[in-house]
Sequence to fold (134 residues):
Amino acid sequence: MTEDDKRPPGEDDLRARLSAEQFQVTQNKGTERAFTGRYLHNKDLGVYTCVVCDAELFASDTKYDSGSGWPSFWLPLAGDSVVTHRDVSHGMVRTEVTCAHCGAHLGHVFQDGPQPTGLRYCVNSAALEFKKQD
Ligand SMILES: [Zn+2]
Fold:
């Protein structure tokens, strides 16, 4: 293995592989416009993975319609698949959610979700891929 293999995918690789919106959301903490994401109304059974590194992040059975305009989940697939950070950008105090594996920005988590967690993981469709269950 060379030194190059150990480094995470470079910016040029990602720009080539991701759409402009996927790159902006995951690498520059962008936000897709509400009600435009391709997975907002997806109700198929399956697993949502990170568009950058393919890590499994959320399962369809914790997805719900929050009315926010972005795909919303009340629980990550595994407790350590996403990490949270305090985010004070844009004049708000929010909790940012990133992929634990590659650090891609996914969205934010809020405290107004349904039980049993009371959490709302508000995630950009552009940060996700969906693997439909057979
Ligand atoms: Zn990732």
